[in-house]
Fold:
Amino acid sequence: MTKGKRGGGSKHQLLWEEVPFLKVEKTGKPVAIYKREDVQKDLPLEQRNYYAHFPIRGTRGKRMSLLVAEREDALMRVQEEAVNLRVQLAQGVTVVIKTTVEDLVAKFLAYKRSRIRGAWEGKGEAGRKSITKERYALIEGKLRNYLVPFLGAKTDAKSIPMRKWSEWETWRRQNVRRGGAPKADTLLNEMGHIRECWKWGMEQGQIPFAPVLPFNDENLVTDDKVRRDTWELDEWNRFKSKPAKWLREQESKGEDEYWDCFVAYQMLFFLSNNGMRVGEVVKVRRKDIRFYERKLGDKTNSFKRLGALVQVHKSTKTGAREVNSMGGEFAMRVYEKASHKRKDDFLFQHLDGSPFTTRQFGTLFRKIMKYTDQEEITGKRLVPYSLRHMYATTRLQHGTSHNALCENMGVGESYLKVHYSHYLPRLATEDLTRMRNDIGLDGRFLREGDDFAVMDDEVTK
Structure:
């Protein structure tokens, strides 16, 4: 081994020592360890960290800090890193150029951006791996907010040890961008995005291959029992008259702004009556909805309700389907009062005929929630998706069959078990006690309840 001093100016390399038996490439030059004169100047030489230089053909080689001050420790670390570099070179990973975390995420997002399908395309045309623009925005936000800051934007992604991922969940719970603490299914969803990004980086040679992926000990399939915040029926009954008061207070606003509030109000109740996703409803055109009248009650007390059959567009999350919706009155109000009435015009439209977006409805939904003080009253974090969950729970509680409910909502029965399992014991109790008396002792079945619509006070008066 040779020791000495190399370099010039202020960047002298002290205690330069080549390790003859250690090479990254068989025909390459030996690896060297050294200490730098220009760093850790406040420490004596023996306490400064060792650095290493790994010669690689066709490049200026790779330099890195070994983060240890003792020579014996440095020799052990440099051997480990030399082995890692050999493996990375064999995998085709670029080892000399630094791949920062922010660069890796940017390249992955560019790949995902290329998969965005047109607003009216389905997966059949665009491919099974295609995603919506909204889905891309979600992925981008999760990675930029909860991956890049966690690892550090300028950190070399190739140097991240696997043990680092065990710290992520604690870090994530301590770094909340908005709202309350993240729920279990939110964390699993974010882990899934991070894992996909990291796997893509390995496949593209941006980072070294590893036998396990981030969060390898986590089952990222949300098969646990997950509760979704929504209204119980008694909470809804106390809430349903309040949005009308909010709407009346908007009458002093400009024509465009008031119309948007009027449409959002109708959307709120329409969504609560059919379980559709907001992204599905905003794509409904006037030609996609057919109204029908239903006669309910009995001979002595009959009344009529308006229903609707809605054709969901193929470009939405679960593809095309027909939805049977109660609460057709809410859609009819917009249908009749809209300025643009051609068949291809959107059902829920602005005054200029352009469609509502999920974000616009979300903004007005939050204003209604704030006005009615729902989160304070219920102690729940209510979002537009809560309307879909409210629809599912009320239907389950009123005896709608699982199969019919799944078809109407565009989900599988496993979805109900995962998200609404806490309601199923109640339903079982009701089913099992539907007899007035024991069988054989003048047993008679209770009459099944009629279908119902979740109405607002304006309709039910």
User: Anything to note?
Assistant: DSSP finds 19 helices and eight strands in the chain. The radius of gyration is 31 Å.
